[in-house]
Description:
Blueprint: E1 2-3, E2 7-11, E3 16-21, E4 26-31, E5 39-44, E6 50-54, E7 59-63, E8 68-71
Amino acid sequence: MVGAGNRIWLGGYNGSLISLDLNSQTFTRHKHSKNRTPIYAICESENGNILVGTNGEGLKSFNPRTKEFTGVDGLSGEVLI
């Protein structure tokens, strides 16, 4: 997914959310889970957070400014694709 700030976001089968900054041409890996739960879907929200659908840990929101993941209420423990 191409998001704001000229970044490409990729979901990894090993539980990583990867960002590619097209300006600096650098990769950054963000781990959402110690269990290496795959990411199946990625979408950017209106507030700039990156929403990821996982296989068994539900929907999570990643804040690119704070580099933190939070679970989305009501959708934890679900498979989202």
